[in-house]
Amino acid sequence: MEALAELERVQTRILQRIAGLELSHLPQHFSHSLSLSSPTGNFKNADDSNSITEARLSAILHANDVRDFLFKRVPSDYYDSPFEARRDVLGAHSIDHLCKSIVLVNTQAMSTVTDCSERNNSKYYVVVVQYTARFNAETVKSFLYALNDGKIPKKKFNLRLAPEETSVKLTGYEHNGVTCIGMKTDIPVILDEAIVKLNPDFFWLGGGEIDLKMGIRTSEFINFVKPFIVNCSGI
């Protein structure tokens, strides 16, 4: 166990250094906007323990050719504020650009389906939807049924919100901090089609910590994450 812990510490330090080097090569205006973790709005030093999550996710994104993204810290009363206030804190284009990642479990999956090894018929899915939208589980059910060419009975798809402890165990992120980047488990992702149609194509979602948000270019998100794109909500 001690050896494993030391390996994780070494990996974290490496990721921090990579992120720091990559940030140093970004245009000045972009690197300064990459994080608003400090009161001055400047990016925290990669050695700062509070920036470990940012450094780790930044390294993952850059390693997968994602360049147009940024992180912002939000105040403790962020989730008590109306969508308009949250939009202003993040500098988002509209309240429709504020999104969240939720972990769903197929409660009726066949007994042989226990993990995420089969992308088309997974026990769990992460769905990214707008805060302003109403998630429609039935459309996802129909999508998965068609995705499997009708070979699996439709009644074997019943997507429900996964228990909080299950979500944390699978993703490694707490409630309100969930993001589909750098999850502990490779969970298939479903991106609501409405997000793809947003203009401009840059949306916000959880950044791995409760008070950390991440903005990302939609096209780059899709190229990296390769989500299923499904019309699964209504405004």
From TrEMBL:
Residues 102-221 form the YbaK/aminoacyl-tRNA synthetase-associated domain. CDD domains: YbaK_like (cd04332). One of its GO terms (biological process) is tRNA metabolic process. It holds the Pfam family tRNA_edit. InterPro entries: YbaK/aa-tRNA-synt-asso_dom_sf, YbaK/aa-tRNA-synth-assoc-dom. This is YbaK/aminoacyl-tRNA synthetase-associated domain-containing protein. SUPFAM superfamilies: YbaK/ProRS associated domain (SSF55826).
